[in-house]
Each structure stands twice: as structure tokens, then as C-alpha cells.
Amino acid sequence: MSTPPRQPRKRAGCPLCGKPPSGAHGPFCSQGCRDRDLLNWLGEGYRVAGPPASESEAGGLDSEG
């Protein structure tokens, strides 16, 4: 059994707009797309899945008060 030769991996485009990535801003195509991605993370536009929050965490209640 021989394995087929590996195909070179295709580089994906910019995650936001799909244009070819720029070496200076990779994996994004420009500083603008790079900044928009950061703003999405900072503005909670993106979310990472995790366990459900408890009631005190969800309501922002302090355990002392």
C-alpha cells in the first residue's frame, strides 16, 4: 500500500472579505480587515462556546452583596 503524494495546501483568503492575504497583514488582506476583526472580538461580535454560566455570573451579582 502506497500513499498518494501530498497536495500542497491552498491558502485561504482573508477571513473577512475573501481577498488574497497580504504577507504584512496575514491572514488578512489589509490593515482594515485586521482592525475590523479585532473590533469584532472586543465588541463581543465573536463568541467562544463554553459551559453555561451560573445565575450569579449571568446576572453580574457579587457573592458578597
* Average predicted local confidence, pLDDT: 81
Look at the helices and sheets and give the structural class.
mainly alpha
The termini sit apart by 68 Å
- The SSE order reads HH
Report the β-strand fraction as a percent range.
under 5%
Unreliable residue stretches = none
Number of strands: 0
**Tally of alpha and pi helices:** 2
Into which percent range does the helicity of residues fall? 25-40%
Major β-sheet annotation: none
Radius of gyration from CA coordinates: 20 Å
- Which outline best applies? flat
Question: What would your notes on this structure say?
Answer:
The protein has a domain at 14-44. With 65 residues, it is mainly α. It contains 2 helices and no strands. The protein is flat. It is 26% helix and 0% strand.
Summarize the structure.
By secondary structure, the protein is mostly helical. Helix content is 26%, strand content 0%. It has a domain at 14-44.
Features:
65 residues, 2 helices, 0% strand
Write the layout of secondary structure elements.
Blueprint: H1 31-42, H2 55-59
